[in-house]
Each structure stands twice: as C-alpha cells, then as structure tokens.
Amino acid sequence: MTTDSSQFGGKWTKEKLKILENYLDSYTTALKNQSFDLVYIDAFAGDGFINTVSDAESDTKEFLEGSVLRALKINDKPFDQLVLIEKNPHRIERLETLVEEYSNHRDVKIEQADANDYLSTCGKFLRGKRGVLFLDPFSTEVSWQTLEKIAGYESLDTWLLFPVSAISRMLPREKRPDEISENLVECLNKVYGDESWRELYTESPQQTLFGEPGYERNPGIDGLVRIYKEKLRSLLGRRFLEKHRDLKNSKNSTLFAFMFFVGNQKGISLAGKIANHILDEI
Ligand SMILES: C[S@@+](CC[C@H](N)C(=O)[O-])C[C@H]1O[C@@H](n2cnc3c(N)ncnc32)[C@H](O)[C@@H]1O
After folding, report:
1. Is this model's pTM higher than 0.85 or not?
2. CATH code of the domain occupying 6-170+229-281
C-alpha cells in the first residue's frame, strides 16, 4: 500500500464497497457450477486502495480496500477474468503491483483507457460470457450512450453510481434552462442521453425584472433521479431494479444514487433477487 492511494469519502464509500463486495461474493457462489466464463469489469478501477478523507465528525483517516482488491479476493468461485480500466497512469502502475501480488495466476487485464471508449467496443470480448460491471466514476463521466451499449450486450449485471450532487450543482434553481452554459448543457445531455432534464424547470409565478415569465426548478434531488430512473426503466424494462441506495455524506446530503440492473432477462430472478436482498440488508 502506498501513502498516495486514492482519496475518497468516508462512510458512504464503505457502504458502496460493502454492497458491491457482497454482490460479487453471492453472484460467484450462485453461478459456480455454470460452464460459462465469469468476468468482472471495474471500469473506474482506482488503484486498489482508498485513503478515506475524514468526515466532519472525525479527524481520522483510514485505508480501505478498494473495489479491485475486493474483487481479486473473492475466493469461493473466483472470477475467470478481470478487466481493470483506469485512465490515470500512476494508478495503473500501482494496479500492476497489486495484481502481481493478488492475481493468483488468474487472467487479469489492466487497460489504460477511457471507460466509455472501452465499454463501447467490448461486445466481441463479452460474447458467451456473463459477469459484473462496476461503474464508479468520480462524477459525470458515464455517458448514456455507453449504458445503451452495455444494455445491448446482455452480459453484465451492472452497479452504477449516478452523480446526484454533481448534476444538482449543474442545474441552478432560478434560471431559465436556456440560460445554462453550453458546456453544462453538453454534459447534462451526455449523462441523460437527451434533454429530458429540462422537464425539471417550470414557469414560476414570479416574473423577471423585464416582465418575462420566470423559471424555477423544484428544490431537492427527487426529480433528477426520477428522470434518470425512468430512462433506465424504458431502456431495460424489468432488468432495472427499482430499489436504489442513496449514498449520503456526513451532512446527510446525497452524493450518489447507487443503482443496479441485470445483464439479461434470464438473470432477473436470481441476480435481481440477490441485489434486492443486499440493498435491504446493508
Ligand atoms: C471513484 S474512483 C474509483 C475507486 C475504485 N472503484 C475503488 O473502489 O477503489 C474513480 C477512478 O476513475 C478514474 N477515472 C476517471 N475518469 C475515467 C475515465 N474516463 N476512464 C477511466 N478511468 C477514469 C480515476 O482516475 C479514478 O481512479
């Protein structure tokens, strides 16, 4: 472990990783007698360790095992293949050291790549395989187009962090939606796949100084999560799990909504049930 391991938040980071780890454990155990190859793809891999930044209530910092290390340590029925995608060259170096120590002769591929690019072009690699994908970006990196691709592969049970707090900051409360800057509009369209986020704005009873109708966005985050979930539901049907987990910081603000969808129709009863149960228990 190095002292410059990635720094992320406290309690919510543990919650997210515990949910993922429990899923990986249950999933591999449930499918251990199946003949197909099981693959784990960590699309925002990090470097295997997390140096949690202190929460408001405590000054202490601690090192946590990150998603990659947890996936490598699954040992009842280990994954046949692991693909670790990471853009940052320093984290790639640290991943290489980690994999040397923990791969245990398993097939582990480290890809220095952009996650959206990799995931948009890995259909051939996934043919005949089943697996789990973890989408754990810092912020708004996951594009809707990538999710459409993933849905089409019908191979990957996917855990996805929707960046509630970042999106909320991009949507000012009292502005006309057409006053939002071009680069923010581009980013919102990339995440939602279209302009559906504009529905969040309605005409307000108060006029502007120039006598024009004012616009406002409902406070809170419910609307922006609701629209995203509606889109996932229409993309995935029953493969999309209605239940999600709000990951909150120590001030009780939601940072991410942690969501899940099943790789294909056949997996709904088993994978959906496991994910549902884990979200109830943790
Ligand atoms: C939140 S961290 C992931 C933490 C990791 N899942 C863990 O539990 O240890 C996000 C990671 O994604 C990487 N990253 C950011 N943008 C990326 C992109 N477009 N493609 C691939 N990796 C990216 C960052 O360098 C960072 O290591």
Report:
1. yes
2. 3.40.50.150
